[in-house]
């Protein structure tokens, strides 16, 4: 078998492994207990919402389907070492308007 063929087979195998593993992400801080969602130290009732003051997101608990739906803001693409922060204490969705880029 030629070196090119071996390289291509290895590349295909690695790509397949990465693609399959991406779907199996577990969030260790997310639990579903007695019809509630527990996430990052907060307990949310089924159908309820949480608006954290330190993160510009909305969390919706669906304990029946064992899902926590996280809605955030559109933030432009990062460049280099730049990052985006919003003001603490302003809740979602208003906090989306206060994101600033820091480089």
Give an account of the 3D structure.
The chain has 103 residues and is of the alpha+beta class. It has one domain. 19% of the residues lie in helices and 29% in strands. A 3-stranded antiparallel beta sheet has the order 1-2-3, with no helix packed on it. A 3-stranded antiparallel beta sheet has the order 4-5-6, with no helix packed on it. It is flat and about 55 Å long. The mean pLDDT is 81.
List the helices and strands and how they pair.
Elements: H1 3-22, E1 30-33, E2 36-39, E3 42-45, E4 49-50, E5 58-62, E6 67-71, E7 83-85, E8 100-102
Antiparallel strand pairs: 1-2, 2-3, 4-5, 5-6, 7-8
Any key phrases for this structure?
single chain; 103 residues; alpha+beta; three-stranded antiparallel sheet; 1 helix; 29% strand; flat
Physical arrangement of strands within the biggest beta sheet = 1-2-3
Rg from C-alpha positions?
20 Å
Shape: flat
Give the count of helical stretches. Answer: 1
Roughly how many Å apart are the termini?
50 Å
Provide the helix percentage: 10-25%
Instruction: List the uncertain runs.
Output: none
- H and E order: HEEEEEEEE
> Pairing-aware structural class of the strands and helices?
alpha+beta
Would you count the extended β strands for me? Answer: 8
Could you give a quick summary of the protein structure above?
The protein is an alpha+beta fold. Helix content is 19%, strand content 29%. It contains 1 helix and 8 strands; from the N terminus they run H-E-E-E-E-E-E-E-E.
